[in-house]
Design goal:
With 138 residues, the chain is mainly β. It has one helix and eleven strands, in the order βαββββββββββ. The strands form two sheets. Strands 1, 2, 3, 4, 5, 10 and 11 form a seven-stranded antiparallel sheet that branches. The structure holds FE2/S2 (inorganic) cluster. The site of FE2/S2 (inorganic) cluster (FES) has 12 residues, from loops.
């Protein structure tokens, strides 16, 4: 799946790799398998997970900041969950909280691909598709 081209007032900004360099979709796809998740620098300098599909990335990214006290939450492939090492909170594969003490699900952002071919993220002000609630982060 390839997210729609970004641009035109969507507030999309390019993600950065560990060195802050842009991340072209082509390069990402070449280096990842289906359901891989890896951190990039996203909105406001926060770390976000991009999620690979067989031929691209999902149209949302997941903020890695635990909603309990702010630890960065690792993805645990063997459990198919995000598991916070600080106090044991768990989030499902889409970042929905499934075990506390975290009170809320991980924040979302939209992903898109800029005309340059680089991956970008944009704010997610819409309803949270995982809970049906308004987004707490917006
Ligand atoms: Fe993640 Fe406390 S900061 S469980």
């Amino acid at each position: 799946f390839f997210p729609k081209l970004g641009g035109g007032g969507g507030g999309a900004s390019p993600v950065g790799d560990i060195n802050g360099a842009a991340v072209p979709l082509k390069k990402w796809v070449a280096g990842h398998k289906d359901n891989d998740r890896e951190l990039v620098q996203g909105l406001k300098g926060d770390a976000y997970y991009l999620i690979s599909t067989p031929d691209g990335i999902k149209d949302f990214a997941i903020n890695a900041t635990c909603t309990h006290l702010g630890c960065v939450v690792p993805w645990v492939r063997s459990a198919n969950k995000f598991c916070c090492p600080c106090h044991g909170s768990q989030y499902d594969e889409n970042g929905k909280v499934v075990r506390g003490p975290a009170p809320l699900s991980l924040a979302l952002a939209h992903t898109s691909v800029l005309e340059s071919g680089d991956i970008a993220v944009a704010p997610w002000p819409e309803q949270d598709f995982r809970t049906g609630l308004d987004p707490w982060w917006s």
